[in-house]
């Protein structure tokens, strides 16, 4: 028995010595000390030992068990330390390495132009209001004094969803929606996407953006319109910018005008940029038509006001000297990076 125990001990210690990992160490523990382990089976065979020898043999088994256990513990501590060191070595970070360069994104020219526009009008006390891109024909046309069968409906090649619902062709329907709410006075701008079934070229796209403006209050005159839009032009294109109003026609304003700004490239002398005229067309505007007030529940004998509509892409193209609108939608980062 003594011999057998001695052999078990020697073999166990040899295996513990040779074990390189915590896993094999655990296997060794199970093989010797587990329920079906070698040492445990020796204990089980105690019944064959003469009763007077049992305490002695029991003591010997316990001694061997203690030796194996302490060797297991010792080796486990060494292996755990080694494993931790290896892990730390593998995960080491070289803090002297240069960091990877990451590209920082920035705003699209349309967004920059819109933020500039909003800054100017919010600074003058305007509210920013949004409206739906999918719009009733009634708001997009009828309430803006464009009755069914009016030729203006052809001018704005409309995408119809059904006979009553369209993709809005302009941001002007937000005027009607805001007036209908009846909270007066109104001083608002409404930026947003609009749609027309246009062919794509350097100055056209089936989807682009407009910013609508509307002021309704008592005693608002054409002089207020001129003063406001002239100030807007100066803030957008520079202090020396001059403005000029040309008579025009829009169904929802009377009188209507288009506003030109003096060319900020040549100062009005005439250049390639302004096609030699010294002026650049910038927006449509006018005094809100009495019919529009009536259809939106406002008394035109008490209230007056003006409205305007600006093409956002047009502003972005002019301000950042981009000569093809398609560049704004391709989203080529080499292009976008420049702004
Ligand atoms: N909605 C017009 C367009 O798409 C632009 C416009 C012109 C808006 C005059 C207005 C306005 O509010 O008064 O061509």
Describe this structure in words.
By secondary structure, this protein is of the alpha+beta class. The chain folds into 2 domains: 2-90; 109-336, BirA Bifunctional Protein, domain 2. The chain has helices at 2-18, 22-33, 38-44, 54-90, 109-123, 137-140, 152-155, 173-181, 222-237, 290-295, 312-319, 327-330, 333-336, and strands at 127-128, 134-136, 165-167, 186-195, 207-217, 243-250, 253-262, 279-288, 304-311. The structure holds 3,4-dihydroxyphenylalanine. 3,4-dihydroxyphenylalanine binds at residues 170, 172, 212, 250, 253, 284-286, 307-309. Residues 170, 172, 212, 250, 253, 284-286, 307-309 line the site of 3,4-dihydroxyphenylalanine.
How is this structure best summarized?
The protein contains 13 helices and nine strands. With 339 residues, it is α+β, with helices and mostly antiparallel strands. It folds into two domains: 2-90; 109-336, BirA Bifunctional Protein, domain 2.
The average pLDDT score comes to 92
Look at the helices and sheets and give the structural class: alpha+beta
Q: How large is the radius of gyration? A: 42 Å
Number of strands: 9
How many separate domains make up the residues?
Answer: 2
Q: How are strands sequenced across the largest beta sheet?
A: 1-4-5-9-8-7-6
Bound molecules: 3,4-dihydroxyphenylalanine
